[in-house]
């Protein structure tokens, strides 16, 4: 295969534009002898004559003009490559893969993607709904670049594989049947619901979150029904089968039930973003983190007090 030397091709193109070796040398800050030597070497590499003498001047051969037609396409592609690389280094292009738990996808990830489409349209985001344990396995393996989880579900801060950032404090509200006697009670406290049947997960972190919140309010909740998904939990609350603690990220979309913000002893969970340690400095990942922070800040400012 013919060896193409980009530097020498640029000199040939400059000669075609400037017309003389002397003018080419001045334009490129070279000596005329250096220009002549580089073009002689290029002709030897390509195996075709590039210049022919015409009096005291030289002119391009037909072979040289053929070479330049292809060189122009190469230079144009290199310009596009330079622009793409500059965009990548600025975090304006590239790809970011996000793994997030189910409620974080519509509440934080989708708004962040909308922000990036407006501000960084060349940055592609791929979203994957994951469970907490899976998201950190994928993050460690390099299959995702960002993992969103609850702080309670994440590896400890002593795990040196990951960098963690708090995105959002997500308060827990109470979901009651609409006709519940306390649905409109002023200054509702969690302790006011100590005698109610409760609905929450049968195992895992969410069961622990619900029980811990109730115990902090001074009672052990009676678990009347068990469900893992918010659709099922809210359907049972709507049917009058019990009450439930619901994250603000979910309660804002709840319908058919009365959602009350607790006046005191309000439990809160924390949503965090994690990257492989050091990866947060990647321009594309940094842009995605900025968009997630903005989405979280918008959500927090719009939330009820």
Automatic annotation (TrEMBL):
Signal peptide: none annotated. Gene3D superfamilies: Periplasmic binding protein-like II, Winged helix-like DNA-binding domain superfamily/Winged helix DNA-binding domain. It comes from the Bacteria. Keywords: DNA-binding, Transcription, Transcription regulation. Transmembrane segments: none annotated. The keyword Methyltransferase does not apply. Residues 4-61 form the HTH lysR-type domain. It holds the Pfam family LysR_substrate. The keyword Protein transport does not apply. CDD domains: HTH_ARSR, PBP2_LTTR_like_6. Belongs to the LysR transcriptional regulatory family. This is LysR family transcriptional regulator.
